C-alpha cells in the first residue's frame, strides 16, 4: 500500500510542478503550468488506474487470507 501512496504522490507532483501551490494555481492557468508533465486527462486516467490497482491489491490480499483460513481444521 505504501507503493500505491508513493505513486499517487508522484502523479500529483507531475501534474503540479514545483513552485506552484494553492495560492498561485487557478482554474484558468491549471492546464498550462510551466514544467507540467501530465495534463488533466492523463492525470485522470492515471489516478483511476491507480485506484483500480489499489482495490485489486486489497481484494487479492483478503482472498489469500481466506484461502489460508480454509486450511484450518475447523473448516472440515
What can you tell me about this protein's structure?
With 76 residues, the chain is an all-alpha fold. The chain has one domain (2-75). 59% of the residues lie in helices and 0% in strands. It is built from 2 helices and no strands. It has helices at residues 2-15, 40-70. Helix 1 packs antiparallel against helix 2 (40-70). The longest helix has 31 residues, at 40-70. The radius of gyration is 19 Å and the shape is rod-shaped. The two termini are 33 Å apart. The model has no long low-confidence stretch (mean pLDDT 80).
Q: Helices and strands in order, then pairings?
A:
Blueprint lengths: L1 H14 L24 H31 L6
Helix pairs in contact: 1-2
What class, by secondary structure content? mainly alpha
Q: Can you tell me the overall shape? A: rod-shaped
Q: Using DSSP, what is the number of strands?
A: 0
Ends distance? 33 Å
Q: How many domain modules?
A: 1
Helix percentage: 55-70%
Order of helices and strands: HH
The fraction of residues in strands falls at under 5%
Main sheet overview:
none
Mean pLDDT: 80
Report the total helices: 2
Radius of gyration (Å):
19 Å
Low-confidence runs (pLDDT<50, min 5 residues)?
none
Amino acid at each position: 500500500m505504501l507503493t500505491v501512496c508513493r505513486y499517487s504522490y508522484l502523479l500529483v507532483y507531475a501534474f503540479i510542478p514545483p513552485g506552484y501551490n494553492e495560492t498561485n494555481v487557478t482554474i484558468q492557468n491549471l492546464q498550462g503550468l510551466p514544467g507540467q508533465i501530465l495534463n488533466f486527462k492523463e492525470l485522470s486516467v492515471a489516478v483511476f488506474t491507480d485506484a483500480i490497482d489499489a482495490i485489486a491489491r486489497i481484494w487479492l490480499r483478503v482472498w489469500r487470507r481466506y484461502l489460508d483460513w480454509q486450511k484450518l481444521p475447523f473448516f472440515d
